[in-house]
Amino acid sequence: MSRLEEKIFREYMTFFEKAERERRWNVFEDIPWDRVNRDASEELALCAETFCSVEMYLPDYVSNGINLVRSYFGQAWFQANWAYEESKHSLTLMQYLLRSGKRTEEQLTDLQHQIFAKKWDLPFHTPRQMTFYGCVQEMATFVIYVKHRERAATENDECLRAIYDYIARDEIAHCRFYQSVIKVLLEEDRQGTLADMAHVFANFEMPGVGIVPDYDSRILKMREAGVDRNVFIQKVYMPILKYLGVGRHEMLAAQRVALDLRHGGERRRDTSIEGLGGAPNLSDAAPQALSA
């Protein structure tokens, strides 16, 4: 085992021990199923269904992700643990939709068939890039679940609020593991890691975009919880850089290079500090990343 692999394995063991001691939760015993609000709005149910839809691509996430890092023991075992925790998310949301009466078994079966008709592919193709992609995706998902936890509370759905709370705790824990690995990678190769971070930021897109049924119409409802482009900058982008100890100018320089590399292609979004900081009028053009 190389020095790098040993460091990453230690980070995984720290993550795993904390998960076992402090964070495990039971779908059947810890969720207050008797506090479902069957009169909650259809919009609340639609958002829960959208989250559930994105989570259902788990077989693709797991097979693609674990094969990419299978030779790195710590990261491969993290992927196995991640798969278990993420499987609870989709199962719990499915149970919520059924127990709340918002969806029938037939409707969910039909949704599953639509989901599995399409396949999710890796958006990036190196372990380092996918590690940073996972970091951004998990932080963004954490922020989104926290926002929707507040929305569930306003509709007096204590069951869904608790579900989002448990899922959000898992997501931020996953993000912290990815961040710990990225810190190690920065120590080993700062410039190369910064280049990969900039590349991912410049081309970032959450899973679900383009493959979840009726995604464009769903995103409009998702944004009503108050998650937009500025929230992405303030709650996802900047906290990640701060946690990793990456300075604004350092990241900006790397991003300029990354953006130049894709110059001339279709610009899905510019998430650089230069492009977004101080541009609150861009909130209406929130990246689709923030809807799943």
How does this structure look, described?
- This protein has helices at 3-23, 42-55, 58-68, 73-99, 105-116, 127-154, 158-188, 190-202, 215-223, 229-244, 248-261, 273-276.
- With 292 residues, it is mainly alpha-helical.
- Residues 266-292 have low confidence and may be disordered.
- α1 (3-23) packs parallel to α4 (73-99).
- The chain is built from twelve helices and no strands.
- The chain starts with a helix and ends in a 16-residue tail after the last helix.
- The chain is 68% helix and 0% strand.
Summarize the structure.
This protein is mainly alpha-helical and 292 residues long.
Topology:
Layout: H1 3-23, H2 42-55, H3 58-68, H4 73-99, H5 105-116, H6 127-154, H7 158-188, H8 190-202, H9 215-223, H10 229-244, H11 248-261, H12 273-276
Helix pairs in contact: 1-4, 1-7, 2-4, 2-9, 3-4, 4-7, 6-7, 6-8, 6-10, 7-8, 8-11
Q: How big is the Rg? A: 19 Å
How much helix, percentage-wise, in residues?
55-70%
Task: Write down how many β-strands occur, each being a DSSP E stretch of 2 or more residues.
Answer: 0
Number of helices: 12
Order of helices and strands: HHHHHHHHHHHH
For the report, how would you describe the main beta sheet? none
Distance between the amino and carboxyl termini? 37 Å
Unreliable segments of 5+ consecutive residues: 266-292
The structural class is: mainly alpha
- The whole-number mean of residue pLDDT values reads 86
Shape: globular
Q: Indicate the proportion of strand residues.
A: under 5%
